[in-house]
Amino acid sequence: MMFESGVNLMKEKTSEKIITYVLAILLAIVILAPFYWLVISSISSKADLLSTPINFFPKKIYTENFKKIFTGGLNISGGEVPPFGTALKNSIVVAGLTSIVCMIVGSLAGYAFARMRFFLDNQLFVLIIAIRMLPEIATIIPLYFIMKSLNLINTITCLVLVYTSFTLPFVIWMMESYFETIPIEIEDAAAIDGLNRFGIFTRIMLPLSLPGIVTTLIFTFLTAWDEFLFALIMTSTYQSKTLTVAISEFTTRHMIDYGLMMTGGLLAALPPMLIALVLQKYIISGLTSGAIKG
Amino acid sequence: MASVVLKNVNKIFPGDVKAVIDFNLEIKDKEFVVLVGPSGCGKSTTLRMVAGLEEITSGEIYIGDRLVNDIPPKDRDIAMVFQNYALYPHMNVYDNMAFGLKLRKLPRAKIDARVKEAARILGIEDYLNRKPKALSGGQRQRVALGRAIVREPKVFLMDEPLSNLDAKLRVLMRTELSKLHNRLQTTFIYVTHDQTEAMTMGDRIVVMKDGYVYQVDTPKNIYDHPANIFVASFIGSPQMNFIDVKLFAESDKLYVSFGNAKLVIPDEIKNKINPSYMGKEVVMGIRPEDIHDEPALLERYPEYCFYTNVDVVELMGSETFLYMDFEGNTLTARVDPGSSAQPGDKIKIGFNMNKVHLFDKDTTNRIF
């Protein structure tokens, strides 16, 4: 009897495994198919790309798009190719600066809200979260006028300020909840061992919140990296445009350069992917850290 | 090594929550003092005020001869052990213990010597390279103790350090802590809600409730002469029996009566009772071990005996607990395991009247 049931169990396990794998593969196809098409489009000539029946792999690897997107030249409708390199650099600077500012200010503020009691602390915290509830687009006109009066339109500073304004509340919230999961006795022990408040923050709290910091950092970077609407409104020069805006400009009044657009999209997807790959072990522990003690 | 003095210390939290009220205590150098009481009694807050982790609302705290009211925790020369260990999870055992010494810029060789010595005392030498998460609860608690020992502080503060351990380990660590105290010859202040820990470890016990100190004395005096009903009920397990009785004098003898029972009060106690209690209702307390059912003993003291009904008999092996009902009062007796009492029996029991405690019904204070 025992052996029989054991065999049944094993059969069940095998069929369970098969189902799991089939579902996982289906899910992977759904998620990866657009990305695959992005890669294929960037290395196909226009003829290959638009031919019917569809070529799921180009007959010939076409590298012209990559050359053109970095060196400039004429696009297929005869217009100037916008300087993609500058846009890439702008995006890296904007997303990088936004992340740095948000993480420094956000973790300090989050710590204060998590551990210190001061006048109107709860009210302030609710106010900050409430700002996050506001649809970002509602602020676009006032923000435009503010930036204009500060002479910041068409600058990197403008985008960093705007992105920080709507990402920072979230960072404060995330960091505050992360700090709250760390037992306060560890801080008490550190205070007795000889650290002051700032030492506790830098030498105990920050190392212990690394998963939370990395998760929040990636979120902040992606928010700034992917942002399109504000970048479109606030910038109109090549010196200040970011990737998302630059990619959209491959669509002209007369035609769409799919090859360049897809190449731009692929290049834009690489930095966040690299970051996610490098930091993924922290992201996973970051997501589960609140669930179990320690 | 130092004395600790708390003078009129008060702690009021925002919202007018009075956590500690007018706390006065002088702790002698090398003394082991236990603060005990139910949760929320202010014992942990008191300890945290001594540590400097909690500001005091008013009063004065001295460590040695130094007023420490405004001195930060790191400069008070104390070490603290927490209930949940509070180890640094990102450091290995060695670094956890060495951290405080490194911050104080001690020479590396000295740090190494102290950490290794503490590890040897606590039997954790083999784990020095492990992270806390790779240790069991008992090992973690040893590391937490080690972190305190290496600092060689003037005062050890312990906040329920054994509460997270399982029962067996708790008993073991209890004796080890007592040994450690003897070995280190340092002042210990120990907080617990467990009266057994308080009784077994403390040189003196401070019993607290609702922010007030109810009694400060040696374990023996607290057990034998509780100052009020709360202390009498809190210390001792199973807890003391309390019966509402009437005190009255009759032909030069003093009696207590409850229900149809009438027991005589021995003369030594009688002489200590203020005559103003004559004819009044008071609360009589008697510990379970002072209620007897051995026939030979009962025959000798018929004036201490009466009949009750047995409800429940609990065999503990080395002793037996009898739960009895006497006209609405539940009485618990700790008797010899050879006792033949069965549930439902009507048996004769006797109170050892030399061991009774009498309390004022209104103030709940002891009346002799």
Defining traits:
heterodimer; A: 294 residues; mainly alpha; MetI-like fold; 2 domains; 13 helices; 0% strand; flat; disordered C terminus; B: 368 residues; alpha+beta; six-stranded mixed β-sheet; five-stranded antiparallel β-sheet; 10 helices; elongated
* Total domain modules of chain A: 2
Instruction: Give the DSSP E fraction of chain B (strand runs of 2 or more residues).
Output: 25-35%
Average the pLDDT over all residues of chain A and give the rounded result.
Answer: 86
- Helix % of chain B is 25-40%
The named CATH superfamily of the largest domain in chain A: MetI-like
Work out the radius of gyration of chain B. Answer: 25 Å
Report on this structure.
The complex is a heterodimer of chains A (about 290) and B (about 375). Chain A is mainly α and about 290 residues long. Chain A contains 13 helices and no strands. Chain A folds into two domains: about 60 residues; about 210 residues, Orthogonal Bundle (MetI-like fold), CATH 1.10.3720. Chain A is flat, with a radius of gyration of 25 Å. The C terminus of chain A is likely disordered. Chain B is α+β, with helices and mostly antiparallel strands. Chain B is built from ten helices and 20 strands. In chain B, helix 2 packs across helix 3 and helix 2 packs parallel to helix 4. The radius of gyration of chain B is 25 Å and the shape is elongated. At the A-B interface, helix 8 and helix 9 of A face strand 6 and helix 2 of B.
What is the compact description of this entry?
The complex is a heterodimer of chains A (294) and B (368). Chain A is mainly alpha-helical.
